[in-house]
Design a protein that fits this description.
By secondary structure, the chain is an alpha/beta fold. It folds into two domains: 91 residues, Rossmann fold (3-Layer(aba) Sandwich); 111 residues, Response regulator (Rossmann fold). Helix content is 45%, strand content 14%. Strands 4, 5, 6, 7 and 8 form a five-stranded parallel beta sheet that branches. A three-stranded parallel beta sheet has the order 1-2-3. Helix 3 links the parallel strand 1 and strand 2. Helix 2 runs parallel beside helix 3. The longest helix is centred in the middle third of the chain and has 17 residues. The radius of gyration is 19 Å and the shape is elongated. It starts with 7 loop residues before the first helix and ends with a strand.
Length: 213
Amino acid sequence: MIRVQERQFYAQLTQRLQDEVSLIRKIAAESVIHHVSPVDPHQIAAALHTLAKTCHAIAAVMIDHPIINQAIDELRTRNVPVIALLSDVSSPALAGSIGVNDWQIGRCAGWFMDRHMLPAPRYAVISGHDMFRCQQTADAGFRSYISSEKAQASVLPTFFCNEDDATAFDLTQGLLAQTPAITGVFVSGGGIDGVLGALERHRGPKPLVVAID
C-alpha cells in the first residue's frame, strides 16, 4: 500500500515491487498494489482492513497515528502481519519496518549544506508531514549536524506542506519574500516539485536546496 503515483519515486517503487514479486519461484506469490493518501489516517486504516480480506501480508507507507496503529493491532489478531515501508510507526504489533537510516540522511544533508555555505548561513526546513517518523528523524539529524558543526548557523522552525506540491510552492514563495536571507533549504519528503517551482520563479538570490523523497 503506497501513495498515488504522481511522484516519480512511488511510480518506480511500484514497478520494482511488482518486478521482484514476479521473480519469486518458491511460492505462488502475487502482488496487489493499493494506492492511498499517505496522510489520511482513516483512509489508511480502512485500506488495511480491506486488503487484509484477500492478502496474507501487507507492506504500507503510513504516518504514525493512533487510528492506524489500532488497525495494525487488530490485523495481528487475524494473523495478517503489517510491515511499515519507508517510515516506521509505533504500534507494538508491527511485524517489521523496511527503510533507511533517516538520522544519517539528515546529518548527511547538513554536511552537504555546510560544505557549500557562507560562514553564517540561515536554513529553512520544509517537511512533508509532521507524523511521518522518517521525516521527523531526518529533520532532527539535520538540526543535530548544524548545531554541532556550524555554531554560527541558524535554522528556522520546520514548515509542513502536507505532502502537497501546491502547498510547498506557496510556503517557499512566502519564505523567500519574508526571509530573503535564507541561504539553504532542506526538503524532507513530499513537496519537492513545489519548492523547485517557486525557486524557478524567484528573481532574487536562490538558496541551495538539498532534498530527499
